[in-house]
Amino acid sequence: MTLTVPTWLTLARIALIPVLVAVYYLDYRWSNLAATVVFVAASVTDWLDGWIARRYRLFSRFGAFLDPVADKLMVSTALVITVQHHHTVWMALWASVIIGREIAVSALREWMAELGQRAKVAVALVGKVKTIVQMVALGFLLYRAPVLGIPVFLIGEWLLAAAAMLTLWSGFEYLRAAWPTLLADEPRTGDEKNP
């Protein structure tokens, strides 16, 4: 298996996860800035690997599998350390909604792929908007310190709430697209017992 440039970028994004955790918990004044820089760098590689893959047609099955995994790992890690540091009911709720939706949609996509209907649950525009809002929110929450009197953390909280709402909306869209398949009767074999 030959690793393409986009796949190397995806692997770099995964490698940045322990770096994010380490710098976030450093006991220095600049640790919040360092954590934000690491997270932003990871977010840029997410955009860059997709752009390079499309521009130069550097697609691979391994890369297609790894890219969404890397995204979910980075976002989940950022959410977990943010909730641990700012453990409020609302923060835990928004994080649970986002992580729960990611698990549910991943399972739904895998199941639809097994049925050969993966295209029905392709990424929609609302999912892309959700990703942008979520990344900006997490960047603000990781930085957390006010800038020129601007309450960065508070803005991050509101953006995370908006991301959670968009997460529910996009999750509903995925479910709506898959709903006819979910309701379809499976063919029964002769030895299957009635439930």
TrEMBL record:
Keyword Isomerase attached: no
Main location: membrane
Essential cofactor(s): Mn(2+)
Record membrane topology: Multi-pass membrane protein
Entry EC no(s): 2.7.8.5
A GO term, aspect molecular function: CDP-diacylglycerol-glycerol-3-phosphate 3-phosphatidyltransferase activity
InterPro entries on file: CDP-alcohol_PTase-I, CDP-OH_P_trans, CDP-OH_PTrfase_TM_dom, CDP_ALCOHOL_P_TRANSF_CS, Phosphatidylglycerol_P_synth
Residue spans crossing the bilayer: 6-26, 121-142, 148-169
Superkingdom, natural source: Bacteria
A UniProt-annotated Pfam family: CDP-OH_P_transf
Matches recorded under Gene3D superfamilies: 1.20.120.1760
GO biological process: glycerophospholipid biosynthetic process; regulation of developmental process
PROSITE patterns in alphabetical order: CDP_ALCOHOL_P_TRANSF (PS00379)
Associated pathway: Phospholipid metabolism; phosphatidylglycerol biosynthesis; phosphatidylglycerol from CDP-diacylglycerol: step 1/2
Catalytic activity: a CDP-1,2-diacyl-sn-glycerol + sn-glycerol 3-phosphate = a 1,2-diacyl-sn-glycero-3-phospho-(1'-sn-glycero-3'-phosphate) + CMP + H(+)
Keywords associated with the record: Lipid biosynthesis, Lipid metabolism, Membrane, Phospholipid biosynthesis, Phospholipid metabolism, Transferase, Transmembrane, Transmembrane helix
PANTHER family xrefs: CDP-DIACYLGLYCEROL--GLYCEROL-3-PHOSPHATE 3-PHOSPHATIDYLTRANSFERASE 1, CHLOROPLASTIC (PTHR14269:SF62), CDP-DIACYLGLYCEROL--GLYCEROL-3-PHOSPHATE 3-PHOSPHATIDYLTRANSFERASE-RELATED (PTHR14269)
Family statement: Belongs to the CDP-alcohol phosphatidyltransferase class-I family.
Protein name, as recorded: CDP-diacylglycerol--glycerol-3-phosphate 3-phosphatidyltransferase
